[in-house]
Amino acid sequence: MTACRLVRVVILIAMSTSSVGAESASPLSVPDQSKARIVVMTDIGGDPDDRQSLVRFLLHACDFKVEGLCTGFGWGHDKKTRPDLIREAIEAYGEVLPNLRSHRRDYPSEQQLLSLVKDGHNGDPHKVAPGMDSEASDWIIGVVDDPDERPVWFAIWGGPRELAQAIWKVQTTRSAAQLAAFKKKIRVHSVADQDKTARWVKQHHPDVFWIFSERIYQGFYAEGDQTLVSPEWMERHIRGPLKRVYPADAHKKAGVKEGDTPSFLYLLPNGLSDPEQPEHGNWGGRFVGSGRGHEYVPAQDLLNGRPDLLYTIHRWRPAYQNAFAARMDWCMLPFGEANHEPVARCNGDTGLRVLRIPATPGGKVQLSAEGSFDPDGDQLRYRWWIYREAGTCQVEPTIAGAGEPQAVVTLPPEASGRTIHVILEITDTGKPPLTAYRRIVLEVGGEPVPPSSNVAQ
Ligand SMILES: [Ca+2]
Ligand SMILES: [Ca+2]
Q1: Which ligand has an atom closest to residue 428 CA?
Q2: Thinking of the domain 340-453, which architecture would CATH place it in?
Q3: pTM exceeding 0.85
């Protein structure tokens, strides 16, 4: 056994305490505490791309604590809710679940997911009112009331009426303090605010944390490398029972559309960002405070030096499409024949949190990815880069060793009082190549010092 192979086996034993039908290695898992609590609210039955997004969501179901799958209405769909389409997708998921669990043992059961399907109200989609409670809106109240103190994220793929109705009911039946406590646990990522109740919430409850993903969500499929969302890509990678429930054509777009997918990719525990900080940016986009209550609206990233709204999402397209392709492989292949994400570590930190490091203007910061590894024993490629738009320093630092496991960032004197976001991107050599991240925020204090008096930190 080579040293590399030995290390791999030791790591896998350390990561896993049981073996469930894997060929040569044990399935992986992610600690529950690093998973976001999530309720999906979908207008499935309208634009077929909700069905596409649901397939991807199910393949990432092990990355979240799934708390609800609610139906409702949205653009182009106000006829009748379609919980049957959610159940149909979950049943297809059930067919591949045994194989998925040979890769990640923390995939939820088919029965568990079916029990979370909750129907919205088949009345006026633009109204909250007495008598308009629904199975979904009552379920939402229960989820938020749960003793689990972590926030509940609402990935909203259509209109937010069911959440709005839940807030309305709590407002009319509880004290002001109880209402405030209820709202404090809510986090919204709303794709396009597709009914009038979004306005109602923002007008009457501006303290609700609300990411308004207006137009930016199109970056998931529009602009950028179109070969990665083409019908040909879809045909090559989407297979097995889940292909049955993944429509080949969405509204005005053949191939992969999934306009609602950024709402949950935003919450993936992949080390790229802290979802509580929308200005960080990740696979679900980047957002800034609108100045109205607790609302965030899309930010722009620089594409070839020009601000571009959609680029904040499609800049990550190779990574998120490779992740999808790999999970499609997980449906069909044994552990040893599919790829799995590397694990990125930074400066000895073994978790996924954003690292904050104090720094001095004109000084140097040493960064190390030592301890990073790949569960398949793949080789790793390292890339340290500055996410300039996420920070507040317009002058870019230099990075020595940007393609190495160890790097040194030299801060410009102009960085005084600013923040600089460094991304560690580790990509394996598996097929397809998969990427893991860490984010380091350099918090630069003090007065600018001459470059000649650099001090290593
Ligand atoms: Ca939708
Ligand atoms: Ca790998």
Answers
A1: 2
A2: Sandwich (2.60)
A3: yes
